# Entry
Amino acid sequence: MNTDHSIIKHKKLSTENAAFYHQYGYLIADGLFEASEIAEIKEEAVQIFRGQRGDIEGLKIPEGQASDFEVLKNYIAIHFPHKISPKILDYVCHAAVAEVLTGIIGPNVKCMQSMLFVKAPGKPGQSWHQDEYYIPTRDRSLTGVWVAIDDATVENGCLWVIPGSQKNMPIRRRIPYHGSEYGDVDLCELEPFTEKDAIAVEVKKGSVVFFNGYLFHSSLRNKTTNNFRTALVSHYMSAESLLPWDWDGRLPLKEDMRDIMMVAGKDPYAHKGTKQLTYPFLRPDVVNIVKES
Ligand SMILES: O=C(O)CCC(=O)C(=O)O
# Structure
């Protein structure tokens, strides 16, 4: 694999970058976020976990003068932080992210989900999966956007991807997992690929990884004793497609889940309006999502 075109430089998606994305299923944009923006997101994460943006079930609000480390050390992530933090909402709709997304998805792009990982030292990773298993689109346009808020390394649990695994790939069967690396009770069958085909996506803070919803990807446990692996991860898709998403069984399945935000272009289904359905929750250490596969 020639990885020359896997990096978006100077915040502009080139034709070669787009071709790389379609072939290998991922792309990296170096320095897409400014240092000041990264610092703001990092600080906002602390405020969210201190309970300053509202209560979240299971959040332990520290008493007295707890350090940021003390506040964050028990957590992996909060899902849907944009629902309680206008700052995170702004970053989920970041213009530079929207610009790249229009180049790989099309002119009309909507977002349905965000997660703010802190992945404290010792916390588990996420097993091999395809995002479309969880968030199904009708046109395979699901795209993950992974913004590194800390430098992401193999040691602190960076993303791993199997380049090209999204091509001509159906949603794969899930098989039980009993190891200690991942928080999940299962993982997706990789065949004809194996873990030997995987590459570690080590990126500096401020860099952004874009990846296709059918791409096999995972992350390992944070093996450091003192480094967080903070990342803002959101999912987007073409606004042309309906979104038959039941939010892992929390919502009745409808043909088009309308808790979405437009990040670029026009919403062809604007006449339906939008509806607040999702809400923030803390990611548990053990994730067990039962679905037919
Ligand atoms: O950041 C991680 O550890 C996993 C994120 C991921 O796999 C995803 O958002 O689909």
Summary: The mean pLDDT is 96. The longest helix spans residues 35-49.
